[in-house]
Write a structure and sequence with these properties.
single chain, alpha/beta, OB fold (Dihydrolipoamide Acetyltransferase, E2P), Rossmann fold, Ribonucleotide Reductase Protein R1, domain 1, 3 domains, six-stranded mixed β-sheet, five-stranded mixed beta barrel, metal ion binding, cytoplasm, Small ribosomal subunit biogenesis GTPase RsgA
């Protein structure tokens, strides 16, 4: 019995890679009976007489599991947004960050397409997000500006590149790994949305680890997150919340709330706090219905 990692899953086949190569495998029938679905990123036990005919016998314990995209055991995510076409949405960025925190995935914020606009307005966001503990990089995948500073994050990690459609994820990956030559597409001038150039999820070997290009999203709903745990998904809130007067403070209307005080004093970005309240109400409504 050998062990490896699933790097691609297409049409019922799982492509498992280890030090001896890549093996095309099928899943055992018991997976369906036990409602187990192997995912890209899964570490598995498999057996194969050759590279074309193998079987995945067991899925090993997962560090984490994402639904959209369906991938497991991610160490870190490059959250790619654009400065223009489409313009940076901090609400969507914060939505992604909450998901990463809930899944215990390190996040690196990458704002692409700096060549399309003046970047002065981005510096205040950079300061706010770095104060919250997130690396924040402003780059251009078109001309390569700033791409080198991302290389340091890749070593020995299982990483993914994700974000909204049309922000230049595939172009960014082509800059990071020039041998890839991934398909790219321009943003629709009429709709201001990008085309989904990534058709399936695949792990690509990179710096003694792997990196995944994932299909882009136009929306992202909260799943497996409870409103009572939302505050710990904002690192700057998590740090201050023990100072709140009441245990179980939701940081909205309660007196003696250390977080509301920190917002008033300018120690927590007001837009981040507003997104927290917005997401909280969304989760309450989601639970009701």
């Amino acid at each position: 019995m050998a062990q490896g990692i699933i790097t691609k899953a297409i049409s019922g086949f799982y492509y498992v890679q280890n030090d001896t190569g890549v093996y095309q495998c099928r899943g055992r029938g018991l997976f369906r009976k036990k409602n187990i679905k192997p995912l890209v990123g899964d570490f598995v036990e498999f057996e194969a007489d050759n590279k074309e005919e193998g079987y995945v016998n067991q899925v090993l314990e997962r560090k984490n599991e994402l639904v959209r995209p369906p991938v497991a055991n991610i160490d870190q995510a490059f959250l790619v947004f654009s400065a223009q076409e489409p313009a940076l949405s901090t609400a969507m960025l914060d939505r992604f960050l909450v998901h990463m925190e809930a899944m215990d995935i390190e996040a690196v914020i990458v704002v692409n397409k700096m060549d399309l606009t003046t970047i002065d307005y981005l510096h205040s966001y950079k300061e706010e997000y770095e104060a919250a503990g997130y690396p924040f990089h402003i780059v251009s995948s078109r001309d390569g500006t700033g791409i080198d500073q991302l290389q340091k994050y890749l070593n020995n990690k299982l990483s993914m590149v994700t974000g909204e459609s049309g922000v230049g994820k595939s172009t960014l990956l082509n800059r990071l790994l020039p041998s890839l030559n991934l398909e790219t597409a321009e943003v629709s001038a009429r709709l201001k949305r990008g085309k989904h150039t990534t058709k399936h999820l695949e792990l690509i070997p990179c710096n003694n680890g792997f990196i995944a290009d994932t299909p882009g999203f136009s929306s992202l709903n909260f799943e497996k997150i409870d409103e009572d745990d939302l505050d710990i998904c904002f690192p700057e809130l998590k740090e201050i919340m023990p100072d709140c007067k009441f245990r179980g403070c939701t940081h909205r209307k309660e007196p003696g709330c250390a977080i509301k005080e920190a917002v008033e004093m300018g120690n927590i970005a007001e837009f981040r706090y507003e997104h927290y309240k917005q997401f909280f109400e969304e989760l309450v409504q989601q639970r009701r219905y």
